[in-house]
Amino acid sequence: MKKIMKRPLNSLGGKSQLQSACQVQVNMPKGGHANPLRILEPNRKRLTSLKAERVFRVSEENIKNVQIVLILPEVIDSLERLNIAFGQELYAMLKEHDILRQKYDNNVYLLQEGKRLEKEYNEWLEMKERQGDLFSESSSESRSESGQQEEEFVIQVKGQNMTTLHQNVAMTADELSYSVKNILRKFRSDPTATKAVLELAKDLSGMKRNFVKGLQDLQSIVREKLLTTPVELEERKYYIGKVVQRENKILKIKEKLQIDYDQQIKIKKEEEEKQSAVINKLKETLQSLNEASSKECSKILNDASQRIKADVKNSDAKQKVFAQQFIETKKTSGDQLKQNYEEEREKRKRKFKLSTEVFNWIQKYDADMGMRQVSLVNENLVWPVRQGS
Q1: How many beta carbons lie within 10 A of that of residue 188, not counting itself?
Q2: 53-93: per-residue pLDDT in tens?
Q3: Which residues is 157 bridged to in the sheet?
Q4: Which controlled-vocabulary keywords does the entry list (predicted)?
């Protein structure tokens, strides 16, 4: 199997291009900073112009006013606890503002109810018109009369029509706006109360906190704009332009490297797909070989088991035959042994008889020979005597 070779992504060329792009020298203006990011900071740290100081103070005052307005609901809920810090006049103004807020909420609720009823009434009219399209033309007069009655219908909530409800909401909104302005003026003239409220405003959370943070960020931007001189602005534009050029060049090189990288990844994926196809083919071949070998093994095992069964069957039959033959042979050998014992006994008897007869013959022979020897001796003794006479 071929190995998947990792080809370098033009590492030397891409690296050199990237280094050359990063080493672009930015021609700094006179009085260049040691830290390149210092060019984005103004040289002045304090506002010298009265107009700039006034603009910054206005933005700072606006942030305080926004914090006070956002924390007003919590201040009104804790009004009894903050009564000493606020004083009687501010306390009365906040109480009146709370009443106006409740009145405004009530008017808004009534207006929403009126809009809901108006929406339901319009939906009812549309449904009735759709149902009226199914009637015959003979009922057109009755529909026209009902239409005149419907046109005379006016939506009212607690005896007030929609126009009055809109006017009430607008009027209470103006009153609330006027009340907020008066409260802010009062806070502006009372530093102690302002400090207490701003301490509470530090605990703002969620959207209110994000809104205040956005205003503070905007104030920082305004302050930076006020501290920046026209010469510094030109230097910043020049420096940022050079940085943008360098970034554009780096982006082009990055895009080129990305294209080369994508091509190499594509080639690698194609090679991997080819290798995967070869591997899958080999897996299929191996699987087919395994299946064939398993079938062959099962066939061999079946044949072997059948042969073993046949051999066992034959061996059992032969064992039975051999056992029968053994029994018969044992019986025959027993009979033969018994017969041999009988024959041996007879032969022993005959042998003993013959031995006895031979012994008797020998004794008889010895006796005869002894007698003849004696007679012969006697004759030998007698013969000389006879010869002499």
Answers
A1: 14
A2: 787 788 888 888 888 788 777 877 777 777 777 777 877 88
A3: 160
A4: Cell projection, Cilium, Cytoplasm, Cytoskeleton, Flagellum
